[in-house]
Amino acid sequence: MGLSVLHPAAALATASPPGSAPGEPGNKLGEWLSVSIPIALTVAFLVAFLVGLRIALRRQAQGKSDTGFHQQLTMFIATLFAVVILILNLPIEKDTRSELLRLFGLLLSGAIALSSTTILGNMMAGLMLRSVRGFRPGDFLRCGDTFGRVTERGLLHTEVQTEQSELTTLPNLYLVTTPYTVIRAGGTIVEARVSLGYDVPRTRAEQLLIQAADSLELEQPFVHILELGDFSVTYRVGGLLREIKHLLSVRSKLRGAMLDSLHHGGVEVASPTLMSTRAFDKRDAFVPPARPAPTAQAEDEGATFEDVAFEKADRAATIEEIEASLGEVKEELASARESLRKAKGDDERESLLAEVERLTKRVERQSARLQKRREELSEDDT
Hints:
Elements: H1 8-11, H2 25-60, H3 68-88, H4 94-114, H5 119-132, E1 140-143, E2 146-153, E3 157-162, E4 167-171, H6 172-177, E5 180-183, E6 188-196, H7 202-215, E7 219-228, E8 233-241, H8 247-264, H9 296-300, H10 305-309, H11 311-342, H12 346-381
Antiparallel strand pairs: 1-2, 1-5, 2-3, 3-4, 6-8, 7-8
């Protein structure tokens, strides 16, 4: 593919003033400036446009959650358009400009083909994750050895805050090619397992384990028998947890409640195989001394483990929830104002005015709360 560039001297030969030779130094400088200045201005304009767009996107997304994807996609598309505009404004022949555009298209297509497993591959995977909507900020996500709460979904990666409050970045391509498990905000089953001896009646074991689940206010508690082993019976106790924010703490509390319930009921949490290694009196039992059970108020005092470990993820999820709730209230307010405009009777107008005032105050309160959360999230990012 041959590229023919129109020489500046040839392009401006007709513009030389009368009585001056085309090869004179003054003419050459003028010709060079007449060609270089428009190119320089075009480049400066495009660079200023991209920098300004970047600054505007950052200001618009300040304090908002889950905006990295839109920023990165917008900048990528704007950069492609800037390259095309630069090619269109080059002082070259029309055929050469068309060849450059075709070359740019070929290079872009080749980059997509050759980089499908890296940068562009992650971009495509990010678009796929957006369309599938498998998870959102605040959801618990397990992928491979990583477990935590989603804090951000970007064009190239997804950020997860782990149990150690560490921020882990997962490439979108990895999430697309690796099965992942999501615990949504609607609730999840919390369960634990324990092995009891055959000397413990099944009905007694199920009763005590159900009491343990009820003490944590789990919905629809259940007890399943998983295995009849050689020396013990394996039970699984669980229930539905609506508030997944405290998932890890509730799992730990469930095991503690199981121990307390079994010990208070006089049931040993020990395998009968102990008889084969150490003899003990039949009146002995492997049960700790009875102590007053801790109250729920004492256990709930102070910050929970999740409040510390998933601080950023919790704020990101809260911002998204407030934005959704604020959008619903604004729709109700717009509907109430439309009804007020069409109202005819005085009683109806007074009722609608009161409703508009109430909704307006709700919008103001939620907007202030949203702004506060955004400022807190911005402090975390800095």
